[in-house]
Amino acid sequence: MIEQVILGAGVVLSFLMAVTLGGNDAAEPTDCAVGAGVISIKRAVLLFAVFTAVGALTQGFMVMKTVGKGIVPEISIAGAFASVAAAVFWVNLIASKMGIDVSVTHSIVGAVFGYGLVAYGFEGLNSQILYLVILSWISSPFTALVLAFLFYRLAIYIIRRFDIDPYDERVENILSKLLIFALIFSAYSFGVNDIANATGVYVTVAAKLGQVPDYNAMIILAALGSVGIAIGGYFIGPKVIETMAFKVTRLDLIKGISAEMSNALVVYLFSTIPYIFIGFGLPISTSLATAGSLIGVGLSAGGLSGIDKSTVFRLAFFWVLTVFVTMALSASIYIVIRDYLGVA
Question: What is the pTM (predicted TM-score) of this model?
Answer without folding.
Answer: 0.87
